[in-house]
Structure formats: C-alpha cells, structure tokens
C-alpha cells in the first residue's frame, strides 16, 4: 500500500526555513517564518505565562483527560476575550482545539457536515493552510479579490463585487484582524458594508482571528468579529493563542459558533464534541489551562496585557522605521503602506525575481510573494533591508 503513495508538494514556508538554516552566511536575515521574535531573534516566554506555569506546577493534581470540548472555564474565558458582550453567551458553542490550525480544520469539517453543498469563499491571498485544508477535505472553494498589489491596500470594491456572486448558505472566510499575509485590513465602514452584503445574501461568516492584540489592541482587534457576530444570525470563529500568549508549541486554539438562537446552541455544542471525538478525541489542556489562569487572574492578566502591548508597540515602531528607511533608500513614498498595515506581516509588492535576488545577493529570506515578518527585524537590520530592496530595484 505504501508504495502507492506519491510525494506531496513541499510547504514553501517550511522549505524557506530550512534554506535559511542551511545558509552559512552570518549576516543572514529571516523574514519568512510566521513566529514572533524579539530584537535578539528569540521567541521569549511571556512573563505572565512563566508565572502561571509555576502556579500550575504547584497546584495541578491530575493529568486525566478534560472534556471532549475542553475545560468549560477555558471556553468561557476565550469567548469573553473574543466576543465580549456582543452576543448572549447562551448562543455560543465552544470547543478547545490543537492550535488555531486545529480550530480552522474543525470549522471546515463543521461546514462540510452542516452543508456539503456550500462553497467557501477565501480572500486572495490568504494563509496557505486555508487552501490546502479545504482542498484536502474536498470542499468547493472560490477566491474573492482582496489585495491591490499596486496600492498594497484592500481592493474593497472588487471584494464586494466578487462576493455578490456567492449563493445563500455559502461561507465567507474572513481574517478578524492583522490579515495574513498582506497586513492590509478593512476599516470600520468597510466592515459594516460587508456585513450588510452578507446579511442580504444569507452568507455565513467564518472568522479566523489569530493575532488579536497584535494590531490596534485587544479590544479594537476584536471589534470586527464582534460586529459580524452581533449582526448576522450565525457565525463560525477560529481563534488562536499561539501569538498573543506566545505559546506556539502548546497548540492552544478554540472553535466557537454563534447560533441564531439559544435553542440551536445545544445541538451545535454536541456537534463540536462529536467532531473532536472523530479527530483527536480529547484536546490538549496545558496551554488552555495557562490561558484560563491568566485571563481570570487580575494580576496575571494585567502583566500579560502590558507585555502584549509592548509587543504591539514594538511592531509599530519597526513598521514606521522601515517605511522611513525605504523612503530614503528609494527616494519614493511607495512603501508608506508598511506603516499603515497591522500585525506581523506585510506584503511588499516586489517581484519574485527581486525576492530571489534578495536571498542570493543579500542573505535576506522572505516568502516568494514578498510577504515579510516584521517581527524578524530589529532597529539594526531595518536599514540593511531597505538598502537591499533599493539595490535590487525595489
């Protein structure tokens, strides 16, 4: 049987990571991997996480399974962080998942189970795993235009024009904040217009919110998700704790659904439990337990929020510096959008040939579509990147 298997296409980002590791040049710069790094190039453990882990080590009394959908306290804390008071909690179903990717996968499984005929509409571009998971599951997928490569901003008119072609019951996959890979986000007025279109056409929103707190702050980054959930009868939400809690390897995520009414919530909750059982059964708990402790303890939460704000502000400083350095290096303001984008990523809009020259001639690694991880920079490497981009013709 195994002889019948075919080699699967390599993950481009993981291949880039390996190429960077194999590069012997000492002055190399890694802007490809989607992980937060500090100025020293390390992914630190947040202070509040360290304290929570120490408390957990002292207090934990069992390693037995949690419930099929995880500890209810984790679900409640995450629902409050993401949704606030936008919808009554008796309409919200919750299931802990192995990371945000697990939440996305379970969300797509839910769509397939509820409406096998549904098409999932996905932004062009989007996080590559969205498309590979949808393809693996055999779910019909259609791209909608999202990013204008000339202005490096959201092409909102084209986005709406494409979504007008969606049929009732189709699912629209949206990024709650800090769009990956572009960094370009809808403004408040655009979100309201999008909500009106989805409501008029009977479309189901599925929101992937993986970077809450990295853009404009915890509350502001949740505003779009809360607007969508409060205005539309049903919403699917996949959330991740990898970035904002810095617990990548703990694989901590959650899938939530908002039902039209409380009477439907019980069935939705049972379905999430069923899907977990068919996949990995009981979800991991260590990361979820830490998140719950931090969100529910006033002192730990304040320390976590303060550190998260430090991370967010640091990214904004790097964005501003890079935009200014590129303006000086290229004698052009074409890269001003970098300061306006939010989150860890921006797509520079340079050609694949330039990306290749940056790698070959300057040891600067980024994804082929010119997506860069802002967190891969520091104040010393920003001028180096700007000069290199100008040198290759950017």
Brief account:
The protein has helices at 12-22, 47-59, 72-83, 99-114, 128-137, 156-163, 188-201, 218-231, 262-279, 286-296, 298-330, 337-340, 352-362, 381-391; strands spanning 29-30, 92-98, 120-124, 141-145, 147-148, 153-154, 171-175, 204-209, 235-240, 252-258, 345-347, 364-365, 371-373. It has 394 residues and is α/β, with parallel strands linked by helices.
Structure description:
With 394 residues, this protein is α/β, with parallel strands linked by helices. It has two domains: 11-44 and 310-391, Aspartate Aminotransferase, domain 1, CATH 3.90.1150; 49-296, 3-Layer(aba) Sandwich (Aspartate Aminotransferase, domain 2), CATH 3.40.640.10. Helix content is 47%, strand content 14%. It contains 14 helices and 13 strands. It has helices spanning 12-22, 47-59, 72-83, 99-114, 128-137, 156-163, 188-201, 218-231, 262-279, 286-296, 298-330, 337-340, 352-362, 381-391, and strands at 29-30, 92-98, 120-124, 141-145, 147-148, 153-154, 171-175, 204-209, 235-240, 252-258, 345-347, 364-365, 371-373. A seven-stranded mixed sheet has the order 2-10-9-8-7-3-4, sandwiched between helices. Strands 1-12 form a two-stranded parallel ribbon. Helix 7 (188-201) links the parallel strand 7 (171-175) and strand 8. It is globular, with a radius of gyration of 21 Å.
Secondary-structure map:
Layout: H1 12-22, E1 29-30, H2 47-59, H3 72-83, E2 92-98, H4 99-114, E3 120-124, H5 128-137, E4 141-145, E5 147-148, E6 153-154, H6 156-163, E7 171-175, H7 188-201, E8 204-209, H8 218-231, E9 235-240, E10 252-258, H9 262-279, H10 286-296, H11 298-330, H12 337-340, E11 345-347, H13 352-362, E12 364-365, E13 371-373, H14 381-391
Parallel strand pairs: 1-12, 3-4, 3-7, 7-8, 8-9
Antiparallel strand pairs: 2-10, 5-6, 9-10, 11-13
